[in-house]
Specification:
The chain is mainly α. The chain has a single domain, classed as Ferritin (Up-down Bundle), CATH 1.20.1260.10. It has 7 helices and no strands. The longest helix has about 40 residues. The protein is globular and about 50 Å long. It starts with a helix and ends with a helix. The N terminus is likely disordered.
Length: about 220
């Protein structure tokens, strides 16, 4: 009886160790899977998300100070649009980053922080001109980044359509604006980011055109005769 009891205790102990071993393997596997998800994201995708996030954060922060320092109604309206549109775009991009364990920047880089600090010291006409000039430069940079993620042939057709519309030509394709298509990729993360770029491109393009128009109007209005 005593020998049977000892054997029973040994058997139970072995089963317990076996169970704990299974648990450790499961936990390690889960951590490994999460780590692998991050490791599989390309450096190009990580850099794009980082740069786009920083640019959007800067647009929102600058837009918030426009109401306090700008004088022209069009500049104030543009600033409000920046806050609204870039906040929305940032939320969607951050969701992609979170799903794929891509690091999201906690704060602005020195380049954008210095620009915001510099503009924060200005007011009135000087602020209006420098802010809009910064918006033109910033959106030109962003357009270049987005276009690297968009189908080139489709983008050329879209730009042609946009160029024709002010001339009064009708849109031929089913009476609608041609949709922007992302550049195709077999990498699921890259494809998600490309889709985001394609979805926000028309808005970024419209921002750039509006900024250029306001910039031109300000120069004409405030240029001495």
């Amino acid at each position: 009886m005593r020998r049977n009891g000892v054997l029973m205790i040994a058997l139970v102990a072995a089963l317990c160790v076996g169970c704990r071993g299974d648990d450790r393997r499961t936990e390690t596997g889960a951590v490994g899977t999460a780590g692998a998800a991050s490791d599989k994201v390309s450096r190009g995708d990580k850099d794009f998300v980082h740069d786009a996030a920083i640019a959007g954060m800067a647009e929102v922060e600058l837009g918030k100070i426009v109401s306090e320092r700008a004088t022209e109604p069009e500049v104030k309206k543009f600033g409000q649009m920046m806050v609204s549109d870039h906040t929305e775009g940032g939320i969607k991009l951050k969701a992609i980053a979170t799903e794929n364990t891509i690091e999201w920047p906690a704060q602005l880089d020195d380049k954008h922080r210095d620009k915001i600090d510099d503009l924060g010291k200005k007011q009135g006409v000087e602020f209006d001109r420098d802010y809009i000039a910064a918006m033109v430069d910033g959106h030109e940079d962003m357009i270049d980044k987005l276009e690297s993620r968009i189908d080139k042939k489709n983008l050329a057709e879209w730009k042609t359509q946009m160029a024709d519309r002010p001339a009064g030509k009708e849109v031929k394709e089913q009476g609608k604006v041609i949709a922007i298509l992302p550049e195709k990729s077999d990498d699921l993360v890259t494809m998600r980011i490309n889709e985001w770029a394609a979805s926000v491109y028309p808005t970024a393009y419209a921002h750039l055109q509006k900024a250029k128009q306001i910039d031109s109007d300000l120069k004409r209005k405030h240029t001495m005769p």
